[in-house]
Amino acid sequence: MSITLTTWSLEQTSPSDLRPATPPEGDDLTIRRAEVPSAEFSRFLYTAVGGDIRWADRLSLTYKQWQEIVEKPGAEIWVAYDRGTPAGYVELDPQDDGVVEIVYFGLIPAFRGRRIGGHLLSYAVARAWDLADRWPEREATKRVWLHTCSLDGPHAMANYERRGFRLFDTKVEETEETETPGPWPGALV
Prior knowledge:
Domain N-acetyltransferase: 29-189
Strand order of the largest sheet: 2-3-4-5-6-1-7
Distance between the termini: 21 Å
Protein name: GNAT family N-acetyltransferase
InterPro entries: Acyl_CoA_acyltransferase, GNAT_dom
Region (Disordered): 1-29
Helix content: 10-25%
Strand content: 25-35%
């Protein structure tokens, strides 16, 4: 069956564009960088967060391809933990000319609706802006961008806009509807 897929591309062009969210109440949430490049951990986060919203573009990648992604100089994965359990993550991809793409961002379904997403996104965008502080060979960040689509969660676009992202492109296309892959093949979400 064919569906209409809308993809929106958004950007910030200055650190002052970021409008941080208020952190959720309580002190049980921490955000840490996954400093050891791990294809297994990256794939776990990808499938746990995106399994119910049809993230499938990386499922066919080999172990070596996953490892190359996480070992790319300047690439970072930031993980939100609720009392030690991964709740969601953000993957930053450094590109040429001071550009950083937020390639993946989201929460594991059980952690959605708890005000974690705005805080995690705010934290990650700040880390995109100061990426060159941790990677001195990198040019200072001049632009942070991302894309979201009509298959993402219902609050995704509003969260990006509230954090100060501005729309710069919209694409509409017909595509084949795929099954929800779940966090592993055949899983019910």
